Amino acid sequence: MSCDFIQLANPGVQELHPYQPGKPISELERELGITNIVKLASNENPIGISPKAQAAMEKKFSELARYPDANGYYLKAKIAERVGVDINQITLGNGSNDVLELIARVFVAPEHEVIFSQHAFVVYPIVTQAIGAKKVVIPAKDWGHDLEATAEAITPNTRMIFIANPNNPTGTWVKSDELKAFMDKVPEDVLVILDEAYYEYVEDKDYPQTIPWIKDYPNLIVTRTFSKAYGLAGVRAGYAVANEEITGLINRPRQPFNMNSLALAAAEAVLDDREYLQRALEVNKAGMEQLEAVFKELSYDYIPSVTNFITVDMGKPAGPIYQHMLEQGVIVRPVANYEMPNHLRVSIGLEEENAKFIRVLREMTK
Ligand SMILES: *Cc1c(COP(=O)(O)O)cnc(C)c1O
């Protein structure tokens, strides 16, 4: 092969690190000679799929030779009604990551700057880098977003700001008045993408209800997902809410079938499964208390979280601890790639799954 294909990739892509996929659980079990691995690594919903979503997908099986509804009419109508906007303000995606990338591709060019926080969700730097735009990383404050510094970092070249609220992998969040004060400082030609992947988990009354703000801040785009509290991570369904003009632009380069028929059916059904959501939130709350209590007892510093995961300081490099836990049959997430080399992110599981993690942690702490 005489051609150096990396030279053909666009400059942003040349500098991206290759994605390191984890091994399938069945493969790990075979290699390690263990069974019943507990996976607390990807912030998935531990209670399994909603029976209503499953039934809706099963009903679709016989129609799968047909293309999906490219407009996602029924799902959009249901979301629009639920969040109180017009149907023309919704963009559907193959997970919300798909929508985040789409939005960036529509608005950001290599000459632009994109702002996000240190320790913010990994998709923001990847998307920015892939376009070849300039990444502007704002140092975190108490692990969370420093919105004052973020506003000060805006230049005439700034095109987009990503804010995860709550943030992954820190579980931190910004309050309504703080976010509003920030939005007041952002010029209208700078788009603010509010990634609310964990929206459903947050109970605090100071957590902002941002979709009604879109009327006042036309540069605001809110994204949400069915992957977390709604338990459809493997199905891939997410959406963005924005003003009609922005939504029209985002939909121009969107692949018409970027949400498949099963995902459309499942997402629509789970929105009606109030019982499922309720149970998911209850299990999560109990699991969070279970883990917090142990971290306190064993004197591990953790970052208080309003999500379905909790990130804990192991007090030393967490890579070997992760490996040890893996060998004991518990998968958690090291976050060294987020500049947090001593932390592990632990997704909240079912009570017995959390208990297994706790047993391994206690063993190690002795
Ligand atoms: C999990 C997560 C998402 C959702 O990703 P999907 O593509 O919808 O599965 C988006 N943003 C953050 C911060 C997340 O943690």
UniProtKB/TrEMBL annotation:
Phylogenetic lineage? Bacteria, Pseudomonadati, Pseudomonadota, Gammaproteobacteria, Kangiellales
What InterPro entries does its record include?
A: Aminotrans_II_pyridoxalP_BS (IPR001917), Aminotransferase_I/II_large (IPR004839), HisP_aminotrans (IPR005861), HistidinolP_aminotransfase (IPR050106), PyrdxlP-dep_Trfase (IPR015424), PyrdxlP-dep_Trfase_major (IPR015421), PyrdxlP-dep_Trfase_small (IPR015422)
Which EC number(s) does UniProt give? 2.6.1.9
Q: Which gene encodes it?
A: hisC
Protein's name according to its UniProt entry: Histidinol-phosphate aminotransferase
Q: Which domain of life is it from?
A: Bacteria
* Reactions catalysed according to its record: L-histidinol phosphate + 2-oxoglutarate = 3-(imidazol-4-yl)-2-oxopropyl phosphate + L-glutamate
CDD domains attached here?
AAT_like
Identify one Pfam family in the record: Aminotran_1_2
Q: State the family named in the UniProt similarity comment for this chain.
A: Belongs to the class-II pyridoxal-phosphate-dependent aminotransferase family. Histidinol-phosphate aminotransferase subfamily.
Q: Which HAMAP family does the record match to this protein?
A: HisC_aminotrans_2
As cofactor, the record names:
pyridoxal 5'-phosphate
Query: Which source organism does the UniProt entry give?
Result: Kangiella geojedonensis
